[in-house]
Design brief:
Chain lengths: ~150, ~150
């Protein structure tokens, strides 16, 4: 019984923390975090396709890694399957459906793994390995875009 | 002469890299990075004012640190003293003026130092120290907002 009560308190606290953030804020923060990662993906791309600057790739990979590990799932609050942050969200309602929980979880885990690996590879300064890992990381982004983001 | 030519090549390459990014993209990426940091500042604040979750504070501080060290200066391209990213930029043209270069440099250095310190303190899990460092970090954000960002 004590366990159940503690569990219920936990749920209440979580709900109350979530309640502090408005849906439009959560969507705005999501869009901001993805755009910040996009900026840094572009930087890595520019480096592997042009003049390779190890330090710049490390900085960019570190940003992507930290955001990938930040716990962005907390920004997918109930009620944020539609609505406007900076702009209208492009998430598909399917992302929130219980039947897709496992698939979404795998996509998130794959993305985290590739982002962590990207930071490791960037630290070595190996341009060819960076290029290969950049493509794997990009693929892990695309997996979500393909299934859970509307086309522009 | 060779030195001068190399210097000129350097300038040309920098200009060409900068030319790849449109002013509106640079402004959008800037706004996104600041909003991503704002999300994570809110998270640290919630933790020091409420129930302290060490892991969440570490994640949040790591995001702020990586963005602080990402080289956002590259997003302050010529021609981005006004214009629209997600929304109209709030930067004051004063930020770009040669006479303020030293002041802006100090603000950026202070912010970097406090963000790096924030990540170190977060890793200790010491809630009181986190609170103190969070305030110092916030102060370093405010220094720029006071002088170089328009009021809403």
């Amino acid at each position: 019984m004590k366990k159940l009560m503690l569990a219920l308190v936990g749920v209440t606290l979580a709900a109350s923390a979530a309640a502090q953030m408005k849906p439009e804020e959560a969507i705005k923060f999501r869009q901001s975090a993805y755009a910040t990662m996009a900026w840094n993906m572009h930087r890595i791309k520019d480096n592997v396709e042009g003049k390779y600057n190890k330090d710049e790739v490390i900085k960019a990979a570190n940003v992507i890694q930290s955001i990938a590990n930040s716990g962005m799932g907390a920004l997918y609050l109930p009620g944020t399957d539609k609505g406007k942050g900076w702009v209208e969200t492009r998430v598909k309602p399917e992302l929130f459906k219980a039947e897709n929980k496992e698939k979404v979880g795998k996509i998130a885990t794959d993305f985290n793994r590739e982002a962590n690996e990207m930071a490791k590879v960037a630290a070595t300064g190996d341009a060819a390995a960076t290029k290969a890992q950049f493509e794997k990381l990009g693929g892990s982004c695309k997996a979500c875009h393909d299934d859970f983001r509307t086309k522009e």
